[in-house]
Amino acid sequence: MRRVSKIAAAGVVSAALALTATACGSSTTSDSGKPSSGGSSTASSGGGSKAKGVGMAYDVGGRGDHSFNDSAARGLDKADGELNLESKELTASNGETESDREQRLDSMAAAGYNPVVAVGYTYGPAVEKMAKKYPNVTFGLVDSVVDAPNVDSMVFATEQSSYLAGVAAALKSKSGKVGFIGGVQNTLIGTFDAGFAQGVKDTKPSVQLTREYLYKTDPRGFNDATSAAAKAQGMLDKGVDVIYTAAGLSGDGSIQKVAGKSGAWAIGVDSDQYNDPALAKYKNSILTSAIKNVDVAVYDLINSVKKDNKPKVGTNTYDLANGGVSVSATGGFIADIQAQIDAAKQKIVSGAIKVSSTP
Amino acid sequence: MKKFDKDRALLGLAAPVLAVLGALIVTGLVLLASGKEPFHAFHVMMTYGSKSDSQVYILNKATPYYLSGLAVAIGFRMNLFNIGVDGQYRLAAFFAAAVGGSMSIPGFIQIPIIILTAMVVGAAWAAIAGVLKVTRGVSEVISTIMLNSIAGIVIGYFLQDGRLGVTDKLASTVTTKPIPSGSHLFNFTTQTDPVVGFIVFAGLAGVLYWFVLSRTRFGFDLRSVGRSESAAQASGVSVKKMVIVSMLISGAMAGLVGMSTLLNQSYQFSTDFPAGIGFTGIAVALLGRNNPIGIAIGALLWAFLERASNGLEFEGYDKEIVGVIQGAIVLAVVIAYELVRRYGLTRQQRQVGAELAAAGSVDKQEVTA
User: Fold this and answer.
1) Boundaries of every domain in chain B
2) Which residues pair with A151 in a beta bridge?
3) Would strands B195-196 and B187-188 be described as parallel, antiparallel, or unpaired?
4) What is the pLDDT of residues B254-313, one digit of tens each?
5) For a Cys-Cys bond, which of A182, B7, B79, B367 suits A189, CB 3.0-4.6 Å?
6) Burial of A27 by CB count in 10 Å (0-12 exposed, 13-18 middle, 19+ buried)?
C-alpha cells in the first residue's frame, strides 16, 4: 500500500512539474508579444551585427547530401561569406505534408529572411502560396516553375550536360555498349535520359544504349543504392562498360559496382562526384560528372536581392551557355576527348544542336 | 458494481508520465553530451509548441495519428499485432482518392463514398493477413509487414500516367485526379490556418471504439480472446471468426487514417502522400495503453514533439533531438508498464496473501478455541 502511494506521488509530482513548465512557457510567450502578422510564431534569434540573410529550405537530406542540397549550400556559403549575411537553414524530413513545407517557408519569410530559397520541386505549391502571402519577399525555387512576380524559378537544362556525358560515353566505350540508370521515371529524370541518348547517338550511331529505371514513380528511387547496384551489375554482365546514373544518392551503388570492374567507367551526376569524399575509393572509375550548378543559381539570386537590390525573378534557365550546367574534367580521364566535348558544347551553345528534353 | 480503485488509476497514470519524464532526462543527457544546454531546448519546445498556429498544426497532425493509434489498438486488445496499418491506410487513401477524383456528384454523397471506399479497401487489405493467419497459421506480424511493402508496389503500379494517375506538368510528380472542390470536407477556420474538419470523425471513431470494446458483447469477446484464447474458445467464442472480424475493423479504422489529409488538405494522392503514420500509430497506441483517451493524449504529444522540432531547428538545435525523445519515450513506456505491471501483480498477491492469512488465523483460533 505504501509503495503504491510512492509511485503515485512520483507520477503526480512529475505531472505537476510538467504543468509548471507549461505555465512558464506561455508566460514567456506573452512577454515577447503577439505573433507576427504573418501568423508565424517563431521569435527570431537573430540580431547582432550581421544582416538578416537568406532563408534556405532544403529538400530531404539537407546539407551534407553530397548532391544538389549541398550544391545549393555552396551557393549560400559563398554569398554569406562575401556579403556577411546571417542565414537560416531548415531541412525537410521524410513523410512531410504540404503544410509542413508551407510552414517552413512561412516561418522564414515572417522572421525577415529574404530571399527565401526552396530547394527541390516538391516545394512548388508551397512557394506559390507563400509568394502571394509575402509579396515583398523574393522566393527562389529550384527545379520547378511558379509563375509569380516575386519568384525566381531556377530550371536547369540538364539534357545539355547529359548530352556531353553521352558524347564522352560513346567515345570512351570499348565494347560499344553504354547504359543509363534513372532513379524514377519522371519528366525530370527524362531530361537526363534524353540528352544522354542523343549525345551517344550523334557521336557514334553504332553504340548500343541500355536504359533502366529503378522505380516508376516511387521517390525511393533517389535513395536506394542497393537496387542501383543490382541494375549496374546486370548491365556490366551484359558487356556495358560506361554507365551514367541519374538517381541522387542511389548513384553511389552503381558507381561502386562499376569500380569493381576494370576498364568500366561511371558517369556521375549533379555534383562533381570525383571530389565526393564518400566516393573517394572509387574516384578513379568516375569518368566525368554531369554537373548541375545549383550553387550558381542560388548565388545569383542572393546577389541580386542583397547586393544589386534588383531581385532576379521569373523563369531562369541555367544551361551550358551561362555555366549553369557543365561536365567536369576532374581526374583528367576525358583529357584525350576534351576537344570533341568542347566542339559539341559549342554546337549546343550556338544552337546548331537542339537537345531534346523528352526521351 | 465495480469499485473505483484509486491506487490502480494512479498506477495506470504513473507509467506514461514516468516514461515521458524518463525520456526527457535521457534527451537532456544527450543534449548535454553534445554540448548544448538542455533546459533552453525544452523551453524553446514549450514556447514554440504552444503558439496559436502550432496548436492548429498539432491538432491537424494528431488527427491521423489518433486514428492510426486506434487501428493498432484494436489489434492489441486482441493480442494481434497489426503492423500493417501503414500499408492499409496508404492503399485505402490511394483508392479513395482515385474514386473521389473520378466522380463529380454532390459532396454530401461523394464524401461518404470516398470514406467508405477507404474503409473497405483498408479492411480488405487487412483481411488478407487475417485469413492467412486463420487458415494457414501465418503470423500476422510477418504477413502485415510484407503487405506494407506490397501495398507500396500496388500503388506504384496504378499511380502512373494512363492508369489511375496524371502527371503534373511542372512538378514532375504523378498524382491521382484531384477531388472536385464540391467534395472537400469542411474546415474550422481559426486566426491562423484552418483545423481539419475530419477531426470530428476521428473523435467519433474514438467514442465508437470505446463503446464497442467496453460496452458490447462483441467487445467483451474480443478482449477475452486477447486475454486467453483457450479460455475464450472454451466459453464458446469462435477465435477464428474474431481474428478475421478484428482485422477487418482494424483495417477499416486504418482506412480512415489518410482521410484528413485527402479530404481536408491535399485533395489528391501523390507520391509524396505522408507515409509511416502506421508505425507512429504503434507508438501512440503503446503510449496510450489502448485507451481511447490515452491514445488521444499520445497522438497530441507526438504531434507536439514534431511541431517543436521545427522550433528547435530554428533556434539552431538539431531537429533530430525530437527523434531521440520519441524513441526514448517508446522504450521508457515499455519498461515503465512492465515495472508497474509487475509491481501491481506483487501487490495483488500480497493483498490476497494478507487476506488469506487473516482468514487462516481466524480459522486456527476457532480450532484451538
Assistant:
1) 64-301
2) A139
3) antiparallel
4) 999 999 999 998 899 988 888 889 999 999 999 898 999 999 999 999 999 988 888 888
5) A182
6) exposed
The interface pTM score, or ipTM, of the predicted complex is 0.73
Chain B residue nearest residue A153, CA to CA: B170
Whole-angstrom distance, CA of residue A79 vs CA of residue A303 = 7
**What domains can you pick out in chain A, each with its CATH number?**
51-156 (3.40.50.2300), 158-292+329-350 (3.40.50.2300)
- Cα dist from A239 to A31, A175, A227, A269, A281, whole Å: 70, 7, 19, 22, 23
How far away is chain A from the Cα of B329, in angstroms, using its nearest Cα? Answer: 15
Residues of chain B with C-beta less than 8 angstroms from the C-beta of A21:
42, 46
* Cα of A309 to nearest chain B Cα, Å: 26
Of the candidate ranges A254-258, B30-34, B98-102, B201-205, the one whose mean pLDDT is the lowest: B30-34
Q: Which residue from B346, B305, B247, B263 is spatially nearest to B65, judged by alpha carbons?
A: B305
Give the closest-approach CA distance of A317 to chain B in angstroms: 14
Query: Does B160 contact A217 at a Cβ distance shorter than 8 Å?
Result: yes
Residue whose grid cell is 507536439? B304
C-alpha to C-alpha distance for B284 and A135, rounded to whole angstroms? 40
For residues B280 and B302, is the Cβ–Cβ distance under 8 A?
A: yes
Contacts with A301 (C-beta within 8 Å, 6 or more apart), sequence order: A115, A117, A138, A140, A152, A154, A311, A312
Q: What is the pLDDT of residues A234-291, one digit of tens each?
A: 999 999 999 999 988 888 899 999 999 989 999 998 888 888 888 889 989 999 999 9
Element (H, E) at B350: helix B320-368
Closest CA in chain A for residue B277: A95
Within 8 A of A16 by CB-CB distance, chain B residues are none
Nearest CA in chain A to B19: A11
- pTM as predicted: 0.80
Q: What is the DSSP letter of A331?
A: T
Task: Count Cβ atoms below 10 Å from residue A185 Cβ, excluding itself.
Answer: 21
pLDDT tops 50 at residue B1 = no
CA dist A158 and A163 (Å) reads 8
Out of B156, B272, B315, name the one closest to residue A215 (CB).
B156
**Residue A42, SS3 per DSSP:** coil
- The CA distance from A161 to A348, in Å, is 10
d(CA B90, CA A331): 46
List Cβ neighbours of B300 (8 Å cut-off, separation of 6 or more): B58, B59, B62
Q: Which residue of B has its CA nearest to A216?
A: B156
All 3 cell numbers of residue B195? Answer: 483545423
Q: Fill in the DSSP letter of residue B103.
A: -
| Rounded Cα gap, residues A116 and A104, in angstroms | 10
φ and ψ of B280, to 5 deg: -60, -40
Whole-number Å distance between alpha carbons of B76 and A101: 34
In DSSP terms, A208 is beta-bridged to A177
- Residue B337 CB partners (closer than 8 Å, separation 6+): B15, B19, B289
Of A148, A139, A92, whose CA–CA distance to A114 is shortest?
A: A139
Q: What are phi and psi of A56, to 5 degrees?
A: -110, 125
Q: In chain A, which ranges are continuous DSSP H helix? A: 2-31, 68-83, 98-110, 124-133, 158-172, 187-203, 225-237, 251-259, 294-306, 338-350
